[in-house]
Amino acid sequence: MTDLHQKSAVVTGASTGIGRAIAKTLIDQGWRVFGSVRKEEDAENLRSALGENCTPLLFDVTDQDAVAGAAKDVRDALDGHTLAGLVNNAGVALGGPLLYLDPEIMRRQLEINVFGPLFVTQAFAPLLGADRTLRGAPGRIVNMSSVAGKIASPVFGPYAMSKHALEAFSESLRRELMVHGIDVIIVGPGAIQTPIWAKADEIDTDDYKGTEYYDILVSMRDKFKEVGEAGLPPEDVGALVSNILTTQKPKTRYAILRSKFLMWTLPRLLPKRQVDRAIAKRFDIPVRK
Questions:
Q1: Which residues have a catalytic role annotated?
Q2: What is the dihedral of CA 188, 194, 197, 203, to 10 degrees?
Q3: Residue 147: inside a domain, yes or no?
Q4: Residues whose CB falls within 8 Å of the CB of residue 81, separated by 6 or more in sequence, listed in order
Q5: C-alpha angle with apex 106: 103 to 108, nearest 5 degrees?
Q6: Which of 2, 35, 47, 70 is least surrounded by CB atoms within 10 angstroms?
Q7: Predicted local confidence at residue 223, as pLDDT
Q8: 145 contacts 186 by C-beta, under 8 angstroms
Q9: What is residue 98's DSSP assignment?
């Protein structure tokens, strides 16, 4: 297989964690990967670590012009062939009790986790097959959601809201892109051993001192860090995404996490009030009678 006929994928947020693991897995299997990063030093690190089949793309997913410029660079590199995969992985997890949340936190959360995938998808969809002049089969889009895309935790409402929105975006997009033969698949990880969990420390709990949520927020922040440390390795998600991009008939959504029955299947089967009580008990949330 020549370089021009290698399967190629774009992976956003490839500097660390899940994105880095996806890029490495695909490259190990012979793919060419265009991995987005936000800093030049991360681009150099990615290129050095993953080799000649990795081409870093320097852009922030919220910068529509920069994303469009990167899509043009990828089009030039593909030399008239389609892109086989787009993985919308870049994202952040922000939190805070909704009654006291600074609206700027919510705005930043949605800009990165919702508008980012929209901008990236609009820019790269022509390369996936919406442009009928390109040679090759239509590609697939993998949108990285979360367990939070279906089951929302208290205090991390902004993150859950962004992932719920991403789920709806993916459902609508999959049905719209049927006209181009481009499939859209959702991956909803639970706890994965990535830096995003350690960044729970970045929530400024002092902003909520004197409120009824301060102790809850501190407790949940510490517990979320513990959950992240006990999560699956990111390489497991890399293997799953590789399978999604190559299997003949992928499912529309995949959940990947430890204790899948207890943490995913059961909460979606039980009545919502019962799940509310279980979450309150787990995170020591006092319930007023």
A1: 159
A2: -110
A3: yes
A4: 4, 5, 8, 134, 135, 136
A5: 110
A6: 2
A7: 79
A8: yes
A9: G
